[in-house]
Write a structure and sequence with these properties.
The protein is 75% helix and 3% strand. The protein is an all-alpha fold.
Length: 297
């Protein structure tokens, strides 16, 4: 019998790296509370807060699923180290530069060193993109815990869209397309698929039976999420806001609601499965007591 691979197994270092992001985000939030978010001439502590929190969530999510990828111990160790190094560098530059009042990527007020640091930030971003591509390929080979793996595969396809938006921001030296398009929306939604599309798979694998229904729910919810990101991407490339009440954003919103419905249904099935398990355990405990009373009579 094949032993089930556990989430987070052996990934303490990467998990702690994710926690560092939350710690930095918390410290930044305190400074924002007392000093405000703007640090002249270019710094924005709000950006540092959201970035550190996002990288923290990303690192913890990778730590959870990396054991399932099926890498050899040597390759897994190399990928883990690269993720940790890239994350720590990103934390440091994003936080330090914003506190210094400089744009960490495309500073127009900093020195030559600040420009070099920003260029290295771009190199680190490309490294993360390459690592995500390697994980995408590897997870399409993985076979254990199939329901969870399906969600992970869709999540990494969503991350491909996020990385395209990230490359766009590097080329444009900013997040905006025209006057209203914002690539950061696609970038953020794409990466959050590591939570939104993986969680339903994890919940449904705990539910006994109903195999066809569970697979359909994962596919249906994930495809709805993917098409929503595609529509948001098209709206952004057209240099229009994704928050306006027009056809593409409205349709994207409907698709996100469809995904939300499948996610909520997954939670309901999971809760019912837990209740059924507890009920069965209670019956098993009560049965011997009933048998003893029968024997006494």
């Amino acid at each position: 019998m094949t032993r089930e691979i556990k989430l987070f197994g052996g990934e303490k270092g990467l998990f702690i790296t994710g926690l560092i992001g939350f710690l930095l985000a918390g410290i930044t939030a305190v400074f924002i509370l007392f000093r405000g978010s703007v640090v002249l001439p270019e710094g924005n502590l709000g950006d540092a807060f959201s970035f550190n929190a996002a990288i923290g969530i990303f690192a913890i999510s990778i730590a959870a699923i990396l054991p399932l990828a099926g890498f050899s111990p040597r390759k897994r160790k190399a990928i883990r180290r690269l993720f940790i190094i890239a994350s720590l560098y990103a934390y440091a530059i994003e936080t330090i530069q914003h506190f210094r009042g400089l744009n960490p990527r495309f500073s127009r007020e900093g020195s030559v060193i600040d420009t070099v640091v920003g260029m290295l930030f771009g190199v680190v971003s490309l490294l993360l993109i390459i690592l995500c591509l390697l994980l995408t390929i590897q997870f399409f080979k993985a076979s254990q815990r199939p329901f969870l793996i399906i969600g992970i595969r869709y999540a990494f396809l969503s991350i491909l869209a996020a990385n395209l938006a990230g490359i766009g921001m590097i080329l444009l030296e900013g997040r905006f397309v025209g006057s209203a398009g914002n690539l950061l929306v696609v970038h953020g939604l794409g990466f959050h698929a590591l939570q939104t599309l993986v969680l339903p798979g994890w919940l449904l694998e705990k539910v006994q039976g109903r195999e066809r229904l569970k697979k359909r729910m994962i596919h249906f919810g994930s495809i709805s999420w993917m098409f929503a990101i595609l529509l948001i991407g098209v709206q952004t490339v057209l240099a229009r806001s994704v928050f306006e009440f027009t056809f593409l954003p409205v349709l994207a919103g409907i698709l996100l609601i469809v995904w939300l419905g499948t996610a909520l249904f997954s939670i309901v099935l999971f809760i019912n499965a837990v209740k059924d398990t507890k009920a069965d355990e209670t019956k098993c405990l009560e049965k011997p007591i009933t048998d003893q009373f029968t024997m006494i009579k």
